């Protein structure tokens, strides 16, 4: 989801900076000492600027957490520890400005040096100080590299689009429904803390694009059995959902009795408190009930259009802006 470049380790960053500096050359005719001064200063500038620009690039690549949608904020918080992320980025900022400052001071001292050896020794000591400052952020760089990997794996969703989250027991037909509701082929994405994947599809109604996401295996196990982290991951989905479509399979071909499914429904209604839950009975091509609930066959497409219309109606009644741009005729 988030595109962040690979983060170098402290050693790799220093290697890059000093290697680049070693290639620095100067043109023009100077006396021996003057020339040594020029080269040494150019090397300090080059190495500190490499560190500065590399770290700046990292800082810029990470999203500003405060500006993120609550869904991503919640996931980052569970996966990574938001404070640690903030502090690590701040230490990169400290390191890059410290390196520039050390190099600037070193250059001044070099300008005042009278002998070639003195110049060499100042340059070496500046390199030493830069190394130690970069080594100081070793742990933070490692952490940010791990953070980068986690963030790359986060499911890419568009939190600005009105979103329908489909939930229910395994095998009731959730993925089938996402496919049936979507105009194109749904995208499959991984979801933290589960080996299962989520389908993400889209459809358009009255110039507004809606997003449909099914829930990972997490929601399938009864809520009490879940550990705290899994629970938080599910709650993250709550930040996305404008509406939850809860799917029942009265045919029980999913392998779970309807009473168990009804129990899960009750728990979901509590868990997603405040978000409208639309209950549908699926697999009506196999068996139906006498209930008042909407009945569909996600497989054959029966009733899916009516469900889409109902979902759009509910979302529109929640927030008039979600109904899309008004067209005047
Ligand atoms: N007869 C019939 N079969 C259906 C219907 N909807 C889904 N199925 C079948 O039920 C099985 C499970 O469907 P999925 O869409 O994978 O179910 P799911 O809820 O996403 O399952 P998990 O991802 O494992 O939680 C598949 O074999 C589908 O073909 C339906 O309306 N009628
Ligand atoms: Mg599925």
In short:
The protein is of the alpha/beta class and 329 residues long. The chain is 52% helix and 12% strand. Strands 2-3-4-1-5-6-7 form a 7-stranded mixed sheet.
Structural overview:
The chain has ten helices and seven strands. The chain is of the alpha/beta class. The protein folds into two domains: 10-153, Up-down Bundle (Four Helix Bundle (Hemerythrin (Met), subunit A)); 163-323, 3-Layer(aba) Sandwich (Rossmann fold), CATH 3.40.50. Strands 2-3-4-1-5-6-7 form a seven-stranded mixed sheet. Strand 2 (187-190) and strand 3 form a beta hairpin. The radius of gyration is 29 Å and the shape is elongated. The chain binds guanosine-5'-triphosphate (GTP) and magnesium ion (MG). The site of magnesium ion has 3 residues, from helix 7. Guanosine-5'-triphosphate binds at residues 170-176, 214, 220, 282-283, 285-286, 297-299.
| Helical content class | 40-55%
The SSE order reads HHHHHHEHEEEHEHEEH
CATH level 4 superfamily of the largest domain: P-loop containing nucleotide triphosphate hydrolases
Q: Care to count the β-strands? A: 7
Taking all residues together, what is the mean pLDDT?
90
**Overall structural domain count:** 2
* CA(first)-CA(last) distance: 39 Å
Count of helices? 10
CATH architecture of the largest domain: 3-Layer(aba) Sandwich
Radius of gyration: 29 Å
Query: SS-based structural class?
Result: alpha/beta
Shape: elongated
User: Mind summarizing the main beta sheet?
Assistant: 7 strands, mixed
Briefly note the CATH topology name of the largest domain: Rossmann fold
The percentage of residues in β strands lies in 5-15%
| CATH C-level category of the largest domain | Alpha Beta
Q: Return residue spans where pLDDT drops below 50 for at least 5 consecutive residues.
A: none
Strand order of the largest sheet: 2-3-4-1-5-6-7
**Bound small molecules, deduplicated:** guanosine-5'-triphosphate, magnesium ion
């Amino acid at each position: 989801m988030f595109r962040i470049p690979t983060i170098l380790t402290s050693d790799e960053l220093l290697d890059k900076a000093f290697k680049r500096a070693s290639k620095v050359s100067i043109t023009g005719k100077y006396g021996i000492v003057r020339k040594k001064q020029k080269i040494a200063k150019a090397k300090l500038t080059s190495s500190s600027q490499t560190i500065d620009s590399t770290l700046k690039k990292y800082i810029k690549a990470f999203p500003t957490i405060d500006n993120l949608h609550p869904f991503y904020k919640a996931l980052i918080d569970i996966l990574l520890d938001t404070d640690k992320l903030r502090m690590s980025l701040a230490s990169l900022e400290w390191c890059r400005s410290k390196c520039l400052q050390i190099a600037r001071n070193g250059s001044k001292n070099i300008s005042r040096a009278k002998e070639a050896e003195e110049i060499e020794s100042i340059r070496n000591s500046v390199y030493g100080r830069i190394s130690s400052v970069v080594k100081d952020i070793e742990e933070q760089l490692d952490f940010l590299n791990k953070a980068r990997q986690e963030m790359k794996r986060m499911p890419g969703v568009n939190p600005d689009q009105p979103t329908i989250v489909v939930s229910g027991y395994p095998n009731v037909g959730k993925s089938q429904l996402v496919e049936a509701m979507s105009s194109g082929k749904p995208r499959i994405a991984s979801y933290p803390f589960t080996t299962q994947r989520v389908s993400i599809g889209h459809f358009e109604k009255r110039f507004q694009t809606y997003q449909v996401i099914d829930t990972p295996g997490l929601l399938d196990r009864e809520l009490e059995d879940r550990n705290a982290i899994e629970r938080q991951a599910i709650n993250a989905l709550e930040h996305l959902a404008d509406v939850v479509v809860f799917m029942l399979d009265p045919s029980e071909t999913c392998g779970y009795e309807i009473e168990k499914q009804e129990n899960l429904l009750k728990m979901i209604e509590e868990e997603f408190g405040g978000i409208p839950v639309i209950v549908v009975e699926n697999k009506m091509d196999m068996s139906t009930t006498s209930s008042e609930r909407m009945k569909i066959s996600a497989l054959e497409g029966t009733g899916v259009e009516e469900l889409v219309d109902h979902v759009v109606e509910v979302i529109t009644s929640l927030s008039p802006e979600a109904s899309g741009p008004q067209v005047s005729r």
